[in-house]
Design a protein that fits this description.
Structural class: mainly beta
Low-confidence stretches: 1-7
Strand content: 35-45%
Mean pLDDT: 87
CATH class: Mainly Beta
CATH topology: Immunoglobulin-like
Distance between the termini: 113 Å
Largest sheet: 4 strands, antiparallel
Length: 140
Amino acid sequence: MFSFVAVKAQDVAKDNKNAPEITFTKLVHDYGTIYQEGDGNCEFEFKNTGKEPLVLTTVTSSCGCTIPEWPKKPILPGKTDVIKVKYDTKRIGKIAKQVTVNSNAKNTPVVLKIEGNVIEKPNATVPEKKTNDGATPVAK
C-alpha cells in the first residue's frame, strides 16, 4: 500500500541549499501624505540572493484598490528586478495595504506593505484682483 503526501513547492525550496532567495531593499513603502488622485505608484526592488533562478508565482494584494505588477520571467542568481504597485488614490483616508509575494524561493511568502494618508486636494482658485472703484486715475 502506498501513501502519498502533498508537498508544497515552498517546503521543497526550504530544504534545498541552492534554492533561490528573494531579498528586498525595503518591505514597506510610505507614501506620506498625498493628495486625492495623486501619484499612487511605487516600486519594491528585489534581488535573487540564492543560487538558482527565482520565479515569482503569484503576487496578490489585500484589496482591489492596490494593483501589483511583477516580472513573469525567471530572475537569475545575483540579478535584480522590481515589483510595481499602484494604489488608487481616489479614496480619502489612511493607506494600510499588503502585497503578498509567492515564489519558488526558500523564504516565500514575503509580505510587502504600503502605508500613508490620502487627503482632499485643495481647491485651485485664482485670487481676485482688488480694485478701488472710487480712485481717480493719475494723469502723467
